[in-house]
Amino acid sequence: MRIMVQKYGGxxxxxxxxxxxxxxxxxKAHQEGFKxxxxxxxxxxxxxxxxxxxxxxxxxxxxxxLDVLVTTGEQASVALFAMLCKDAGLRARSLLGFQIxxxxxxxxxRARIMxxxxxxxxxxxxxxxxxxxxxxxxxxxxxxxxxxxxxxxDTTGVALAAALEAEVCEIYTDVNGVYTTDPNLCSNARKxxxxxxxxxxxxxxxxxxxxQIRSVEFAKKxxxxxxxxxxxxxxxxxxxxxxDTEMEDxxxxxxxxxxxxxxxxxxxxxxxxxxxAAIFAPIAEAGILVDMxxxxxxxxxxxxxxxxxxxGNLDKTLAILEKLKPEIGAAEIQHDTNVCKVSVIGxxxxxxxxxxxxxxxxxxxxxxxxxxxxxxxxxxxxxxxEKYLELAVRTLHDAFGLSQAPTPAC
Amino acid sequence: MRIMVQKYGGxxxxxxxxxxxxxxxxxKAHQEGFKxxxxxxxxxxxxxxxxxxxxxxxxxxxxxxLDVLVTTGEQASVALFAMLCKDAGLRARSLLGFQIxxxxxxxxxRARIMxxxxxxxxxxxxxxxxxxxxxxxxxxxxxxxxxxxxxxxDTTGVALAAALEAEVCEIYTDVNGVYTTDPNLCSNARKxxxxxxxxxxxxxxxxxxxxQIRSVEFAKKxxxxxxxxxxxxxxxxxxxxxxDTEMEDxxxxxxxxxxxxxxxxxxxxxxxxxxxAAIFAPIAEAGILVDMxxxxxxxxxxxxxxxxxxxGNLDKTLAILEKLKPEIGAAEIQHDTNVCKVSVIGxxxxxxxxxxxxxxxxxxxxxxxxxxxxxxxxxxxxxxxEKYLELAVRTLHDAFGLSQAPTPAC
Lengths: 410, 410
Known about the structure:
2 copies of one chain form a homodimer. Chain A has 2 domains: about 5-240, Acetylglutamate kinase-like (Carbamate kinase); about 255-400, 2-Layer Sandwich (VC0802-like), CATH 3.30.2130.10. Chain A has 12 helices and 18 strands. In chain A, the strands form 4 sheets. In chain A, strands 3-6-2-1-9-11-12-10 form an 8-stranded mixed β-sheet, with helices on both faces. A 6-stranded antiparallel β-sheet of chain A has the order 14-15-13-16-18-17. In chain A, strands 4-5 form a two-stranded antiparallel ribbon. By secondary structure, chain A is α/β, with parallel strands linked by helices. The longest helix of chain A has 25 residues, at about 65-85. In chain A, helix 5 packs parallel to helix 7 (about 215-220). The interface of A and B includes residues 56, 58, 65, 84 and 87 of A.
């Protein structure tokens, strides 16, 4: 049995005309001899409509009930699309998360998939040409509905492909694939034919909205080749796959950025063991993700601690720090929301040195001051003033020659 | 454990303000020491919105997928209402049909409840003050979603009350109770304090939209006292209950009518055994409900067959009859949509004769011609021209003295 998984995002299923395009793709795969498992998102706008409704009803909606509410979005998509499939003569049916089941933990609103009943799915694929699966949703071991977090339908698609050992997992969206950088910022951004899982992880963690980061982790873990492509064109898209030597020959694959940044500096805290833990443990307990952290070399028993968080968490974080002031002996707490992150990403960095200093030189030429630096094996990130964002991205994109397809090394 | 079931219709849950009224009622019951099981409909308008969407996608939507689609309406209601309950400090959660489960047969779009897992519900009532159950929906033995037909939330409410042996089952709607006739037609219609199951069945089958007919059958079968009342007033409503001698003293309890009628006459069919079966079997197979049937005394081996159906089934029925013409030897098929049914209803008829002739006399006085007559133990129905409907209802209502509360017989 040849199995293909296709996942379609909200813009691809919004309305009858677009769903007909999706149907055409599925009929094609069916004619090519595939059993097709289709994971669908809610129609675009629907999840936000439901969240707004919840907010009207409750200032802080119960997460379990919120999941009961928002799963209706995907439920409507799969019902309508299964109708279309049946009218087109395909043996098709919808499947909700609990019907497979896609079992998750009980972490409502951001649950993790624990298990997919593969045997049941394979049994259904004997009887049906097309299974239309509701993305984003699962069920916990007590039978309560859960959701996988924003973009979770990507993870549903990849997890289904992994569980069924599908030949291909195609993620259909409204862009042609993964680009060297945001085409809205940089007109000569180039679509990548292939990208490694690790690079895609770095792109996703920078807020590039092509794939949910957890779906990439899943794909990497189970080695699922994922093709990101557009519902509306015939472009083959971008293949997210295992790293190979050809990829390593490319120094930098792309430039990512993140505007949702905010820098906090805690001045003159006591420079003694445990002070970092004293600051960051309460922040972590509040569910706030800290990104970059810098601790200056201390002077006279005192040091400065600087870190970044997303802007939505600023007020909560400041309140926590204010309470901690006496305990950590901090003199002052400063914050700055006019900052952003810009990163160069590439698996080639693993074997090539000098990328970091090239990046700093390029930024310096444009007189862009670097506020913080963080590095990983395949990424270098600089925090800069937000007003320089577009300039930094375009300059780095040009300087690393990303608008040109790389020529294979001889 | 004192258990109360309350069911709220679509107008009672449409929007935050109305749901707050529902919440107040539930808090009151909770304070009185009840565990409350609340069955909710979809917000009014929502089911129609979903059905219209389905029609846009498919001329004849797959019934199983239609159920997946329309169940989202109740799902949204229960999630939002459970949020409200939790914010109000009640221990509450939502329950979908499959989570209880409410098991039905697989007759999609008009399924029947086969079983309710009472033990599980009682277990949940140990942990929760309020269980918010999605009305209208169930799950078949294969785990597919089903719905109970229009008005099915009433049946959910009554079935839950029966399964849990609840003290009371209150059906909240936007009217104060059951009236002697439609108050829109007859300004001196009087609200009934009590009505028997059998009378309520006749009212419901006549299209009075107060209770789904199946919920009344259920209530009768399990002897569940049902109180029909308004969410928006403090009126105690109407108690639907077992017949007692006091009720039998009342000759006529109410006047019902049904405008959705259409009369078909098949002229000059062969008057031989089996001709009725030959006509009505194919109509029944097409899922069309035939209501009144009259076969005239035959002459010269020929007879006329007259019957009524709902107007929506006219074209389908005529097509079936046209095909049958040669087989049944019919000369002509006539139809008339300008007709309606009017009925007098009362358990008192069981022990009092003469109601039928009183009805005929009253109609004759107003020069209203009777086209067809049908009788049951507690109902007399006349088919009349539609233009006389209001006149007939008002005249019968007055003549049987229904605007006055009955005085108990000495």
